[in-house]
Amino acid sequence: MKIVGKRISRGTASGEALVSKEPISFLGGVDPETGVVSEKGHPLEGRALAGKVLIFPRGKGSTVGAYVLYRLRKSGRAPAAMINVDADITVASGAIISGIPMLHRLEKDPLELKDGTEVFVNAEEGYIEVKE
Predict the structure, then answer these.
(1) Which of 3, 27, 85, 123 makes a 20 to 30 Å CA pair with 108?
(2) CB atoms near residue 25 (< 10 Å)
């Protein structure tokens, strides 16, 4: 299934979907050393982001979160790609400076995808392909 969206950050990547219906704070909510969600009570608490297609509504919290994404990318612990319902400036700028492919405003709600689903993100042409 192909779903069209708007590009935030160029690139292509594929991986398993890691889906949260809750926003993510990269500063304080993700351990920059391990790439594991550390926010207490978050639906993804204890889950690693590395190599995943991270799907979530938007970011929350400090603008320093963009630099946490950059640090995760440099250490090899960043998501392979990100998809937001409606991206905020912090996550968008973090994706851009880190070279993480990112889309938002997809034709279908990406939060309906299931964890573990294989997703190919083409943020060059502005779409994802979901393997069913």
Answers:
(1) 27
(2) 20
Task: Look up tokens 């009570």; give the residue.
Answer: 41
What are 57-72's pLDDT values in tens digits?
Answer: 999 999 999 999 999 9
| Pick among 3.50.30.10, 3.40.605.10, 3.40.30.10, 3.40.50.300: CATH of 2-130 | 3.50.30.10
Task: Enter the tokens of residue 30.
Answer: 């993700």
pLDDT at 132: 74
Who's near 58: CB < 8 A, 6+ residues apart?
23, 84, 85, 86, 87, 88, 91
B/e letters for 116-128, b = 16+ CB within 10 Å, e = fewer, are eeebbbbbeebbb
| Candidates 20, 38, 62, 98; catalytic one | 62
